[in-house]
Amino acid sequence: MPKFVSESVSEVAAPAAKQEKKQESKQEGKQKGEEERKQAEGRQPERKQPLPESPAKPSSPKPAPQPAAKQAGQPTPQRPTQPITQPTAAQERSSAKPVAERQSRPPMSSHQVAKPPEAAQKYQPYGPPQGTRQLPTTTRPLREGTLARPYPPRGGGGGPSRPPREGQRRGPPFDQAQRPGGSSRPPFRPSGPNGDRGGPRSYESRPYESRSPGSRPPGSRSYDSRPPGPRGPGGPPGARSFGPPRPGSGRPPVRPGGPAGRFAGSAPKEGTPRRAGETKVKVGEDRAKQKLREVQAPKALRRQDGRDDVRARHGYVEDKEEGAWRARKRKAFREHVVQEVQRPSKIKVRLPISIKDLAQEMKLKASELIGKLFIQGMILTLNSELDDATTVQVLGTEFGCDVVIDTAEEDRVAISHQSVKQEIQADESSELSLRPPVVAFMGHVDHGKTSLIDAIRKSNRAAKEVGAITQHIGAFSCQTEHGNITILDTPGHEAFSLMRERGAGVTDIVVLVIAGDEGIQEQTLEAMRQAREAQSTIVVAITKSDKPAFNAENVYRQLAEHELLPEVWGGQTVAVHCSAVTGEGVTTLLEMLALQAEVLELKASPAKRARGTVIESEMQQGLGATATVLVQNGTLKEGDSLVCGAEWARVKSMRDENGKKVLSTGPGVCVRIVGLSGLPEAGDEFIVVKNEKEAKEIAEVRREGKRRQVFQTKKRASMESFKEGAVAAPKKEFALILRADVQGSLEALAKALEKIQSNKVSLNIIAKEVGQISESDIQLAATSGAAILGFHTSVEAHAETMIKALGVKIYLSEIIYHAVDEVRLRMLDLLEKLPKEEERGKAEVRVTFKASQLGVIAGCQVIEGSIVRNMHIRVRRGSEVVWTGAIASLKRVKDDVREVQKGVECGILLQGYNDVQVGDILEAFEIVYIAQEL
User: Nearest Cα to 841, choosing from 863, 857, 858, 824?
Assistant: First the structure.
């Protein structure tokens, strides 16, 4: 571990008071050890015989000085022997302690008792023999930068072996046979006179040579044969001492072991970093407590050797990728501050607003608003929107908040809250001028509406109608002797009810066309109702006056029954006899229309911005989205920007009904405009704004509101609907894609198809668009398994190949009721035909014959009807039917026959049945499949 990590860990781990106490104890121990060491150095021990001098190094030029005893040839005295005592149980337990505990023992001082001669000859590990007394210890300071580690014993010792130092190689293993006396460790190699080792290791046995007291350098180790006892002046001879390491030897100081012969690590010097994972243990600390702490350490803080890592315990995390320790990121303490919510007493919101947004404005929980609404009987959800100002204001009052409805955005999107008539009435009379009347021809189908318009316009529009019926709404401007008029031609088929309703809503005068030979019909009554709802003036035109079956009195009576009393009968309703073939009554009808327009005093303000209604919209090739609009007030010019429902436009060009370009048009005139962003819906109101940017913004807001409204109006599933779905049989579904030429026809076709009611097949219109059938429609139909219905439209030329490849069914129709009938037939095709059994004849079994190869043959006589070979047979025995199947063979005498009539005998072989008995009745029946109804 680095030094700065060790210092930071020690500062964090120990309190300040504990650190001071440690320092004081260390200083006292050092002072005591210094005093003992000085006393030991001042005393010169008496030795009977000096130790042999270590051999000189090979590189030394001078031989080492020899002791006087060796030169004289005196024999080397031996150390006194002493019997080795057996270790006790406590000593064995202490010797079996872990290495970590042995290293943590206090170091021995140099004052130790010498070993007996027997132990010295066997070369026991360094340390006092067992059973000897140990003097007080002293701690020798370490060199700066060194680490305290145990001194490994030599071979045969009790401790673990130490790996070689960096740059040092281990010598060859010792041979037990070469060692003197079979010893487990090599002999002691004394150092030379200069403190160095005596060259390479030598295992030759040599006699022990003593030295004179002053022949060894001070501080070196000495061995003598003094008996064990305390060292000092007058102490027993034979004690051994351990001095400081020889200079240049490169060997750490000797650390003698304890009573059990184990070596304990000395305490490191203050400030010296310890090894990673080492545990600092006090001298007098209980070993069991230390071991318990090591066992209870978390697994995440333990090293591989089982000991806990001090770095992890002090907030460091090991980065395994980089192999380094980093400080653990500490989470910042978040103080929980309770703030009191200040609820507003007055807010300003825009409608529509969701419950979630309203709760945020009022600083409340949405559940509180939902609960309050639930009490009032309104079941709403979090995203439900409130568009009623009264409901929002009452809800705010319940919670003590005054809710003000902000209408600024609503006013900007609506542009104007006044209708066209209200806007005209608000203008001054000096700004108003007369405008041409808008006249709508309405009535039942095939009563002559288009033919009458052709007689007025001197055109032949009826000849171009498919099926001789009008299926589109038309807008024309006519110049007559009595002034200009704008004519709207509405279809008379029942499917075009919405077209007639739009025509009646924008018109000033309604011409109710009634055929004199047929009288008032269903669509005539509908036109009456729509004209009254629009508060339009009604003029009756009784057509087909040139036919023999013409009966005007019958028409007058029917009009009177419906509160339209004609002027002939003293009423106020104008009724004119007309004929489109002969032209009878056409001029009179125009005079009546001009008179009614004069009475109504139809005026508008040409100086105002243009405003009107969309009559029809369609997609034209090369032009894109186009719309036929009726200008009701103001003047529409080329280049104006307008908002039309949820779409916007910048008018690029305007054309009349004949295709002529128009630069500007006043009120009461219909024109076709180009430059729309999309197809507006028929009946939408348009109004001119100041620039294109504003038109885009308003259209986008309207489109978003429309989309939101569609989501809110979705039918929600209820418990009753779930029960009905569980009881009712599963329906088959006919998916359909609609394509039409104009928006009005598409809307009318969809309404007509929705009127098809069936409990067995449901019609699902997955898409409806205006224009030609494109490749995208074909791909959608192939993916969803739908069919495509085109009304007054065609298929794109490059899409024919895709139709054949994908096998999509396409139905094209030019007449609306043909299209409805086609869809009805395709829905019937989805229903499976129901089987029905029809009885054809009966035969009675009179006798049975057994054939080895065929089985049992029934000899029968036909008693009712006839028996045909391809019919099914039902075997009835008494009142029970025992078998039903087919006839395998039918014979008359020996010939195969196809049919046997009543009263004739025959032989019948049943297919797969041989248990026929005499007296059984064979009933022949035929299965007929009947088509279902919707």
Answer: 863
